[in-house]
Write a structure and sequence with these properties.
436 residues, alpha/beta, Rossmann fold, 2 domains, 6-stranded parallel sheet, 18 helices, 14 strands, 44% helix, binds nicotinamide-adenine-dinucleotide
């Protein structure tokens, strides 16, 4: 198929490269010139395992091109829209300016029979509105909503072999034809048994936010249990292991810690509550406000623990921060708990030295006031307390005996409950987990 991908960020760049890798002819379009220059040279503008390889090979083969010129979409028949939908500056609602601008400019270059495929996460009702607008601006074009569920860090694998595919289509022949075209595009995933759910627009939009709301709820649920564990002397990790053996509950996403962040979960649950209120159904998902509050309280809890460990005074104390990305295997620091904690400690007067295997550059753009070190050794040297906030394997695998020689004080706060506490304690460290 001849495909265009509008918006080449964490989602769009991976989607474009993966589609080319599957044999389609793809052009990626973005308004960000620096990003396009890198992508056109076959270089990813962010860290994502597996992306450099498929990007380089597809660009070299000529199956994948990148441009800032939206008129290039005219050469394609199927157009994926993957632009950002961040939180609005002045409310919880999603900011749809980028989606609206992308649709407006795309509409000028597409032809009857083309398919536009929305991948961005949007408030329910957006696809129906955009379909009406397209019917005027680009008659004969069909809109499908095909939400994306990829996980950063596993984005290539999740795009090529997703857990499921959801097609939100219009009624009738146009919808049936659209589903057939998507089946053709995703033929290899379908051949491998990926289930497809075909629905109306509203269901497809809701599937995405409902999935994220559920995952956020699971994380905040166990973090709420951590809060109770902290005042009762219980161990939330053992609690999670015990309840996780119940197959109806499951152990995944039950890791208590500093909570969720990133470019999706926080803004998606907020946009969902804002949309539900607009629909007069705010009470139906009012619990998501509480999920958000529990999540944010965990960041405050880490700041509190660091302050306690340092005897109530942060000024002049050296804090070694292991991790900046919102999760391992990513360089994404959007709404990262680690970065927020680091900034709050700096504000309180601490001398914070931070490291991350991939996220130093993206963190530096947002937080130039932090001190960054490339090596774990330099980060830990002379630290009064160590705080682990992103569970990269290279941090989890540290030898407490060895690194004990570097720090001024053997104190560690494990913000992800990912270290073997017995091992750290027996190496002479004061170990503090969350909810343990
Ligand atoms: P991102 O900020 O990394 O990328 C968005 C890109 O869109 C940017 O490169 C930006 O320059 C570009 N853009 C903005 N306006 C444009 C326009 N008019 N024309 C062309 N390009 C334009 O964001 P992202 O993380 O890739 O997320 C994109 C969407 O996908 C969001 O709705 C997000 O919620 C959703 N999503 C993201 C993920 C993820 O893991 N990142 C997973 C599932 C869904």
């Amino acid at each position: 198929m001849r495909i265009s991908v509008i918006g080449c960020g964490y989602l769009g760049a991976v989607h474009a490269a993966a589609m080319a890798e599957l044999g389609h002819d793809v052009v990626g379009v973005d308004v960000d010139e620096a990003k396009i220059a890198l992508l056109a040279a076959g270089k990813p503008p962010f860290f994502e395992p597996g992306l450099p390889e498929i990007l380089a090979s597809s660009v070299a083969s000529g199956r994948l091109r990148f441009t800032t010129d939206i008129s290039a979409a005219a050469q394609a028949d199927v157009h994926f829209v993957a632009v950002g939908t961040p939180q609005s500056a002045d409310s919880y609602a999603a900011d749809l300016r980028f989606v609206d601008a992308a649709f407006r400019s795309l509409a000028e270059h597409i032809k009857p029979g083309d398919l536009v495929v929305g991948k961005s996460t949007v408030p329910v009702g957006t696809a129906a509105r955009l379909a009406e607008e397209l019917a005027v601006a680009a008659p004969g074009v069909t809109l499908v909503w095909n939400p994306e569920f990829l996980r950063e860090g596993f984005a290539v694998q999740d795009t090529v072999a997703p857990d499921r595919l959801v097609y939100g289509v219009p009624e009738g022949e146009a919808g049936e034809r659209a589903a057939r075209i998507l089946d053709h595009i995703y033929a290899s995933a379908l051949a491998a048994g990926t289930p497809v759910i075909v629905s109306d627009y509203a269901t497809s939009e809701l599937v995405k936010v409902a999935a994220n709301a559920f995952l956020a709820t699971k994380i905040s649920f166990i973090n709420a249990m951590a809060e109770i564990a902290e005042v009762t002397g219980a161990d939330v990790t053992k609690l999670a292991d015990a309840i996780g053996h119940d197959k109806r509950i499951g152990r995944r996403f039950l890791n208590a810690g500093v909570g969720f962040g990133g470019g999706c979960l926080p803004k998606d649950i907020r946009a969902f509550t804002a949309r539900a209120r607009e629909l007069g159904k705010g009470e139906s998902i009012a619990f998501l406000d509480e999920i958000d509050k529990i999540n944010l309280r965990r960041r405050s809890r880490v700041v509190e623990l660091v302050t306690q460990e340092l005897g109530g005074e942060l000024a002049g104390k050296r804090v070694a921060m292991l991790g900046l990305a919102f999760k391992p295997h990513s360089d994404d620091v959007r709404d990262s708990p680690a970065l927020e904690v680091a900034l709050r400690l700096v504000e309180a007067g601490a001398d914070v030295v931070a490291t991350d295997p991939q996220a130093i550059e993206s963190a530096r753009l947002r937080a130039p006031m932090l001190t960054y070190k490339r090596s774990v050794e330099q980060t830990l040297r002379g630290a009064d307390v160590v705080v682990l906030l992103t569970e990269w394997p290279e941090f989890v695998g540290l030898d407490p005996e060895q690194v004990g020689e570097l720090v001024a004080e053997k104190r560690i706060i494990d913000g992800r409950n990912s270290l073997d506490q017995a091992r750290w304690r027996s190496a002479g460290w004061r170990y503090t987990g969350l909810g343990r």
